[in-house]
TrEMBL record:
Keyword entries, A-Z: GTP-binding, Hydrolase, Nucleotide-binding
Name of protein: GTP cyclohydrolase II
Gene3D superfamilies xref list: GTP cyclohydrolase II (3.40.50.10990)
CDD domains, A to Z: GTP_cyclohydro2
GO biological process terms, semicolon-separated: riboflavin biosynthetic process
Highest taxon in the source lineage: Bacteria
Organism of origin: Chlorogloeopsis fritschii PCC 6912
Start and end residues of each GTP cyclohydrolase II domain: 227-375
NCBIfam families with a match to the protein in the record: PRK07198.1 (NF005536)
Domain GTP cyclohydrolase N-terminal: 10-198
InterPro entries registered for this protein in UniProt: GTP_CH_N, GTP_cyclohydro_II, RibA, RibA-like_sf
Lineage summary: Bacteria, Bacillati, Cyanobacteriota, Cyanophyceae, Nostocales
Length: 419
């Protein structure tokens, strides 16, 4: 018989609070003193320390489980965080301590190593949920913008060859469940029950541990790209450009022509560079919400349904085809999106590079002013993406141009699957 470690064979359930021993450190969401707020402790090595539901790394926790199961990762591995601290400081901002403003991000997530040192000394395994680094990025369309004179190389924000110097932050979601429920105007009980049931019962604590109010959901996070001076983001005298972009792998990475995602993203970066070069800052918020958070399988099924329907792919049936397959038109829930803008301390956006009414409404209802909205330039819209853009404009997307009626929408056609 293979030798078995009796400790590792023992399955530890966290589904009910311990009747004995110390209670976990409470989290007082919204408190301004980090020690009063309390650290987010999602460690799996010391069950008694856990004060949240779920674990770190979002959906990648499943790969971590595989690595442990295969024996290539020690289940009690503790991250060595030497030299991992943020390269730029963000916050604290007043919005960090406002229960109405941030409920889906841990504002202290990047600086746990600074603010919770005493807990580290006591042996607590506290991990950052935000990491901030620097990079050079480059996209071929930006070199074209330089060649056409729309962008200039200044040697600081944009270097020779079109390299952009950026600060970027990766953010894992940390949900304060009472705040999320309030944001969606539902009860916390209904929220917990749906999260429990719709994940196949993955997190029993959602229904058994009402004492734990913070959940690390197994979903994709957000990446923020910042161009220009970080201090300009919150300086009322400096201009700020923002694009909030929801992931579209097919277009963003592979250049698919069925939508406007990559061209609009690159245009957003271009506006960010221009604004940074004027002494302001530009912010790209990239959210992992593939296919309106319906996932790529649903998205590709919808593409087929659109292109095979009677009359072919048409703008007047664009949303209907999505709803037939997914049951809804959209599951991105932009209501949570402004949290990351509040984490950055944004109170005014001078140039909002987005036509989405859902994003606009969410941001302005969150108390952030939007001065100007910048639609995608007509010449950047791929031919096969006309169906999408005309349907969206007719549904309320911002435009300075014409909005088609139902007859007009019926005549906007996309390419057939066989072409
Ligand atoms: Zn797209």
């Amino acid at each position: 018989m293979p030798k078995q470690n009796s400790v590792s064979r023992h399955i530890v359930l966290t589904s009910h609070p311990s009747r004995v021993g110390p209670k976990p450190i409470p989290i007082k969401w919204g408190a301004s003193d980090p020690m009063e707020r309390g650290p987010v402790i999602a460690t799996l090595t010391k069950q008694a320390h856990r004060n949240v539901i779920g674990t770190h790394s979002g959906s990648y926790a499943v790969y971590r489980a595989l690595a442990v199961a295969r024996g290539v990762l020690q289940s009690d591995h503790r991250a060595d965080l030497t030299n991992t601290s943020p390269v730029e400081h963000i916050g604290p901002h007043p919005s960090w301590f406002d229960l109405e403003k941030i409920v889906s991000v841990d504002p202290f997530g990047a600086i746990v190593g600074e603010v919770f040192t005493s807990y580290y000394e006591q042996g607590y395994d506290i991990r950052p949920t935000i990491a901030i680094t620097k990079a050079h990025i480059n996209m071929p369309e930006l070199q074209e913008a330089v060649a056409k004179g729309r962008l200039t190389i200044d040697g600081k924000i944009m270097k020779s060859g079109g390299d952009l110097v950026v600060t970027k932050a990766a953010i894992e979601p940390v949900w304060y469940l009472p705040g999320i429920a309030k944001r969606f105007q539902i009860t916390e009980g209904d929220l917990r029950r749906a999260l429990f049931e719709q994940t196949g019962g993955m997190f029993p604590e959602l229904v058994t541990r009402s004492d734990l109010e913070v959940f690390l959901p197994p979903i994709g996070g957000v990446t923020v790209y910042i161009l220009g001076d970080i201090a300009a983001i919150t300086d009322p005298n400096k201009p700020l450009a923002v694009r909030v972009h929801d992931e579209c792998n097919g277009s963003d990475v592979f250049g698919s022509d069925i939508c406007t995602c990559r061209p609009y993203l690159v245009h957003g970066i271009e506006v960010c560079v221009q604004t940074a070069q004027e002494g302001g800052a530009g912010v790209i918020v990239y959210c992992r919400k593939e296919g309106r958070a319906l996932g790529e399988v649903t998205k590709f099924l919808v593409y087929n349904a659109r292109k095979r329907q009677e009359g072919g792919d048409r703008a007047d049936a664009y949303f209907e085809r999505t709803e037939c397959v997914a049951g809804v038109q959209d599951m991105r829930f932009q209501e949570l999106m402004p949290d990351v803008l509040h984490w950055l301390g944004i109170t005014r956006i001078d140039r909002m590079v987005s036509m989405s009414n859902m994003k606009y409404n969410a941001i302005t209802e969150a108390g952030i002013e939007i001065v100007e909205r910048i639609p995608i330039p007509e010449d950047l819209i791929p031919q096969d993406a006309r169906v999408e853009i005309e349907a969206k404009k007719a549904a309320g997307y911002y435009t300075t141009g014409e909005v088609l009626d139902s007859n007009g929408l019926g005549s906007v056609k996309g390419r057939a699957l066989t072409d």
